[in-house]
Amino acid sequence: MDPADLSNQLARIAARQEEQDHRMDQFALALQTLLNRSSGGTTSPPDPVVPIVSSASPERNRLSMKAPLRYDGTPSLCRGFLTQLEILFENNPGSCMSDKAKVGYLINHLTEKALLWATPLWENKKPIIYDYEGFTSELKRTFDPSRRATNAGRSLFHIKQGNRRVSDYAIDFKTLTSEVLWPNDVLTLAFTEGLNETFMFELAPLKLPETLDHLIDFCIAMDDQIRERRHPRDRPRRLLPPLPPSSRNTGTPGAQENVKTDIPIAEPMQIGKTGISEAERAHRREKGLCFYCAGADHFRLQCPQRPRGGRGESGRSNQRPANTQVIGSLYASFVNNEKKKSRILVPISLTWDRVHLKTEAFLDSGASGNFMDKHFAAKCLIPLVLKERPLMVEAIDGNPLSCPHITHDTIFVCMETGVLHHEKICFQIIESPSCPVVLGFPWLVKHNPVIDWVQRDIKNWSPHCQSNCLGKVDLIGSLNVATAPPLSTEVPDHYLDLKEVFSKSRTEVLPPHRPYDCAINLLPGTMPPRGHVYPLSQKENNIMEEYIRENLDRGFIRRSSSPAGAGFFFVSKKEGDLRPCIDYRGLNRITIRNAYPIPLITELFDRLKGANVYTKLDLRGAYNLVRIKEGHEWMTAFNTRSGHYEYLVMPFGLCNAPAIFQDLINDTLREFLQVFVIVYLDDILIYSPDIVTHHVHVRQVLKKLLEAGLYCKLEKCLFDIRTVHFLGYIITPEGFQMDPKKLTAILDWPLPQGLKAIQRFLGFTNYY
């Protein structure tokens, strides 16, 4: 037989077989319907326990259902296929009485990969074909192994309303909630977190429903009312303002009042209405192209193809004075408060002549330079220098600003953008009252930051910045104090039998749970916020990756699917190293404070009278020796570019960490406190009148620390000394005095600018 004829014949046989299968399915359903009707033909006497349904109800209530489409093994279709089968079986309880019959029916509706998987199970009479639940579980495990709950949980805390209606946002949100088993409070918080800022502003004065369903209904109704209020059907369209007398069309009196337009007032980061589409406008903005001709070497104002002397230019000469220069297009309309939310504002810190201040800079791709408001510069006493020749600055439409000439620049100042980005920069002085600092197109081209336009934030920096601008954080108020001479790294002979207390490896394993576990108790109705990922230099990124690997190996952290997530960055330690820090400020604001007292320094030193010998101990990995309370780990979650993690040990940065650790160390050494030991967090000072007694005291302390699972950092410990630097003081048998290096730090402190800087300075000076 010809192979082609054989192939056609087999195809016809397969088609007939499939048609017969379909007819058999229909026949089985029809037979079941007849059986149900016949069984309900006579009415039985009422049973006292189970009521009998009338003969008409099955026929009236039972639905006629088609068999599900055949399943080919596509993961996304697996759940729907099994759900359709469940519904079919539930509505036709007599059609498949045994589990094997159900499995057979299911296999009869498989094709391709799914059928290849199931065929050997049926042929070999595997036990699983006699267990319908087990068979469907194995089918899902094979073809739909996705972690739906985890993925849905992550999506719930990233989904945003944006510019959509609340009803559209709610549909997506409810779809995700069906995959998780979160409590109502968490779901309502997640829903409100995803609403846009404008809508949340409308809700702020209102009392919101407590349940998710009622909250969604309430928000949808509010959204409809707000949209109706903003866009009523009978709303008149805005008219253009009258033209000035020199430009008005005198030939058609009154014609101007009938011209309608929707052109908005020019404002930052927004090009006026032109003949190009929004998509093309966005493309040209992103590429730095001219908005008139799409050229790459000029702005719209200098475009050679742009008509001159047209609308808006009548009566104005195109000739520039010889001593001026046009520097580009800076938006002049900074007065529309309604649109301020659409700006990209980034936090910056400016430092010059030991003066430090913080403000915000407006990123303006339409500005051809970096500008500062003259009133802001005068208020902050920023030194200015006179330009060799004045420059002219114009708005986007070519019209001059109220003060069109730039005559002064600032001196070069150090600008820190965000947390880690440093550079030297000078600003040109203009009049811009609502935007004190403007970073224009040249700055954006030079640094080429990655901007999240939805969150209105800088997410990352260019390779140029990674190499030249990103470095260690130099926090204002940090002290550059020289460290003590190199310390001994050998255990003294008197304590060799206790050398285990100086073990480094013992601190690199997960400690046990204890009564001092760090609990994170939140204020009622609050939820840990989500932070953003801080940009890191290449060096910091390498250190961060190593930190993550080490702590995963030690068991100090684990991968997380928590809805919370704080930022991760580094600060400089006085030894020159980098200390990893988690930005728990948002979590700390909603944490109930632990009231355990921290010792007063002056009160501690009152106990030192009569002491002649000192030993200073420094605990290794102090906070990491305390576990997070079981069930509270998810609140410590933090974000990095390599993943989402949470702590199992107490990290630095939690507001209650000092109190919890002070409680632990005080209980450990309680019998020695104020007798021959003073403790301030992880710093321990042992004092004695003579060397013999001192050795006994030190041994007692080391034994207690070892029993409590606390270990010392040998390279930072000092033994049997008569002069010791402790908590910013120099202590000797004759008394104690302030460390001269700390005094120098106070004398050299930069002039504080702003409330926070003043508080930081006063806090440091009041310490002494």
From TrEMBL:
Q: Where is the stretch described as Disordered?
A: 38-57, 229-267, 303-322
Q: Identify the enzyme class.
A: hydrolase
Instruction: Name the SUPFAM superfamilies on file.
Output: Acid proteases (SSF50630), DNA/RNA polymerases (SSF56672)
Which EC number applies?
3.1.26.4
Q: Pfam families, per this entry?
A: Retrotrans_gag, RVT_1
Q: Which Gene3D superfamilies match?
A: 3.30.70.270, Acid Proteases, HIV Type 1 Reverse Transcriptase, subunit A, domain 1
Which residue stretches does the UniProt record annotate as biased composition, category Basic residues? 229-238
Q: Which GO terms describe its molecular function?
A: RNA-DNA hybrid ribonuclease activity
Q: InterPro entries in the record, alphabetically?
A: DNA/RNA_pol_sf, Peptidase_aspartic_dom_sf, Retrotrans_gag_dom, Rev_trsase/Diguanyl_cyclase, RT_dom, RTL1-rel
Q: Polar residues compositional bias: what residue ranges? A: 246-255
Recorded family membership: Belongs to the beta type-B retroviral polymerase family. HERV class-II K(HML-2) pol subfamily.
PANTHER family assigned to the protein according to its UniProt record, in alphabetical order: LDOC1 RELATED, TRANSPOSON TY3-I GAG POLYPROTEIN
Q: What protein does this entry describe?
A: ribonuclease H
Say which species the protein is native to.
Leptobrachium leishanense
